[in-house]
Amino acid sequence: MKNKDHTNNLGNKELFIIKDITIRHESNRSMFSFGMADFLFDIFNGIFGGFYFLFWETEVKLNIWIVALGYIIYAIWNSINDPLVGYFTDRPNRFWKKYGKRFPLIIIGGIPAILTLAAIFSPPYLDPISGVWIYFAWILISTCLFELFFTIVSLNHYALYPDKFRLDTDRRKAGGIRMALSLVGTAVGFMIPPLLITYGDRQSYTNMAWIFVGINMIIFLTIIPGHIESKELRARYVIEQEEKERISFWKTLKIVLTQKNFVVVILIFLMDAIIGASLTASIQYVAKYLLQAEAETSIFLLAGFILGALGSLWPWLIFSQKIKNNRKMLIIGVFLNTIFLLPFMFAKSLIGMVICCILLGIGGGALRIGRNPVLADTIDEATVKSGQHIEGALMGVYTFFNKFSLIAQGLIFAIVHELTGFDPNLTTQTELANFGILLHTAFIPMILTFIGFIIFLLVYDLTPEKTLKIKEQLKKLKL
Questions:
Q1: Residues with Cβ < 8 Å from 240, sequence gap 6 or more?
Q2: pLDDT-above-70 percentage for the chain
Q3: Domain for residue 13, yes or no?
Q4: How many domains does the chain have?
Q5: Most CB within 10 Å of its CB: which of 79, 139, 261, 378?
Q6: 437 three-class SS
Q7: Which residues, in sequence order, are CB contacts of 368 under 8 Å at separation 6+?
Q8: How much is the pTM?
């Protein structure tokens, strides 16, 4: 059996044996623990994405261009940081055999990421004009440190997914569990903070951030079991380390950027990330200025999104398992997630906004059921073409371009607020400023995503038949 590949079916237990290394179905418990990382990340995203601009622009009263500049520099650092971390995590290391390739880094980055997130909302009390550069330095240091540690955790989590879940059924099931936990994390990260803050009370934002330090620490403990790499997986790392040629960062980048399917997936997920970043940061502006309500009102909007996504999750998962076509599933999701942004431009009441959020949640549910399997398919294709596992580098490049969504969102906010005359010192904005809030909430992200959608339709060609051939090649190459 040695050095031969074969598939073995034992009842319902499907096994792949590659060079005496067995790849088997993962347990539900392992999938759940793995998905808790997505739960945690979405809490991070809810707090940072939902309150960064609101806190620094309307509570600290810092000039919007200073707020945006700090955010853009953070996003640039984010983009540079991601592929470098990915490259260094893929470099062969003698500790892989004993401790694993991803697990130690996830442990190292977790607690510092939790603490630095709270620091972003804990600046000293200064005059926003005379203390502008101290505030600016605080933004840069806190956000860039948060990003460094968050990248160490998240990149290794995402890179572990295609390695840990090798079978299509596991990938779809784990993807569904991740989606469900991600939505719950979104609910916690977006719906609990508004209960802890008060518009006009700056200290309440700081208190909220530190309350979540305790919550996030507990959640972090739950992700540990699902990220411990098995002896079989660690053994495969050792084999790859011994047999595969080490390649440079620039060669890796070149390999990644020549994979047209991977590149177009990066593009479509970048557009989706712009939707997410813009909507996340806009929702509090919608509640405060368009609806003239308190922070708690934003919970109804976010609940609408969660309700739509969770309610449609199981039907979408069943549908995806039935059609067995990851490409088609993603196309449906991207289309719905794009077109359901349009109703936001016409909603004038809380009920209307909630209905819009429910529709967007349904579209987002379809997209997120399709995205993880498609991403795994493109990683498999790149692995075959490169002849070795470079998931860390692939995810580093993916997140590098994905972070341009933050630059886009920061620029969209600053430009729209400048051109429409948004004034953070006013509790009631002009009609033009209110229209600007709708522009950065929905319309501009919708146009950008529609362009990406057309390109995806024209370029992406990983059909079920092609992905099956790629998996056969992976077995032949002992990958």
A1: 92, 388, 389
A2: 86
A3: no
A4: 1
A5: 378
A6: helix
A7: 179, 182, 309, 333
A8: 0.70
